[in-house]
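Help needed: design a sequence for this.
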């Protein structure tokens, strides 16, 4: 969604979208499919400054969110890699 928002930053009338992952996860835990939960929890962002052409994408906000997601993803991979290395060393008896 973030990349779609960034790609459409110059499209008149485009409405920036976001998703409430906490609500989507809670909905899927209650039995909905993850895809249906994601669709149901898709929201439109409210811009801080409205544009004249109706586009609600704020490029700085989208880039910040994208960067935060990239850092979180990298940190998660590092954590998992460390856990796998620890288990591997334990199996080898190191």
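Sure. Designed sequence:
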């Amino acid at each position: 969604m973030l990349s779609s928002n960034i790609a459409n930053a110059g499209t008149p009338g485009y409405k920036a979208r976001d998703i409430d992952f906490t609500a989507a996860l809670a909905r899927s835990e209650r039995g909905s499919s993850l895809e249906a939960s994601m669709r149901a929890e898709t929201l439109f962002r409210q811009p801080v400054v409205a544009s004249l052409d109706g586009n609600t994408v704020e490029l700085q906000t989208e880039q910040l969110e994208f960067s935060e997601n990239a850092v979180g993803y990298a940190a998660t991979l590092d954590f998992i890699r460390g856990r796998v290395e620890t288990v591997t060393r334990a199996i080898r008896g190191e």
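The longest helix spans residues 59-92.
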